[in-house]
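USER: Study each token:
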Amino acid sequence: MRRGGRVFAGWRTVYRFTLVQTFKTTKIRRATILVGVILLLGAMILNIALSLSQGPSSIQNLYWVNESDLTGDFSSLQQDSRYAHVQIFQTTESRDELIRELAGTERDVAVFLKLDEGTYHIETVLPAGSRVSRREAQALSEALRPLVEEYRLQKADVGEKAAALAGVDGRVRIIRAGGGAKGEGELWMQILLPMLVGAALFSMIMLYGQTIAKAIIAEKTSKLMETLLTYMEPYALIAGKIGAMVSLALMQMGIWILCILVGLWVGDLIGDVLNPNYVNGMMEALRRLKENGGLSALSPMGVTLSVLSLCLGFLMYSVIAGFLNSFAGKPEDLSNTMGVFITITITSFVLAYALPLYTLLQGGDVSGILNYIPFTAAFCLPADILVGTVDVGGALLALVLMALTTLLFIFLTGKIYKAKVFYRGASPFGIITKNH
């Protein structure tokens, strides 16, 4: 018999049974292992490829033809490890003569500096038969750009100090009245991190939403369900089933993220052996973000609240998927209910990312409002906690609102689930309002 007054009594039993039975399936285990191996190898190969791409250029000889009014040396170019080995020859030969002479060479390039209507142009020419790729030629042209700027400053005779000032990289600092300065790293974190976290949650919802929906209606017409609902409340049954599916999804995602991190780490070690001059762009970006204050909220408390909000957001949308799909009487009806669920998810994701991004670029901020709307908070709250745009008190309030919304949808789903089993044909409004 039911345990009176305890609407969630027995949910742990359903949770354990569903989790064990689902994980026992060979399909789930194979998918987890296969995707994990692919992600590990992919991350490792990516880092190795990046390290090899930063190795010394295959160019051996550079023939420089200066057709402009600028002069200067190549010391700064040869300080670049990619071009330290390149032999540079300055020549006054005509374009056609030089290209004819270099025909058949495999590792030579000709570079022309021209002045055209007041604008300086760098043109890199690959001789016939050259084995130098277009990408390498483009990289060389980009590396030569600072030299041209240096030549222009020398021609203007602005002096060494002025030239040094002119070459300083600019840094953006935005200060709100009453607040501190925001470094470049923090601004980039406020733009990129919400997109990455929101996209990760959106992918999880889309990947597992259909599975959760099928789990909700799989046994709706079974006599076993009618028996179970006589011994426990439908809310306990729904909480146990969805909780098990969410736990399985989070475990899979955790394993896959771990595989990516291990792959990046191993690939970085191999890349450093293959190319000692390799600079890991991802690690360098994190270092700069830390220096600029972009990770100011990356504390144990901030990370804990961020992970908790991400998990709670996924649970909430999983319950919403169960709620909408509880109206389906059979698997064939899932297409209609899943369409509504996908529309709600996409709309919330776009609002949670696009609206704060637009207002941030305009100098405003609306993320504070969206953090207290559970549908959008699931996508923006985890990142806002990390970048420090919401304090601990605000984060806890937002988490409470998301938890209450989750409980509300569990209650509604349980009511509909039970009514669809025992009272087939009842209207949705009557199912929700009637005390069965």
About this structure: Residues 11-51+184-433 form one domain.
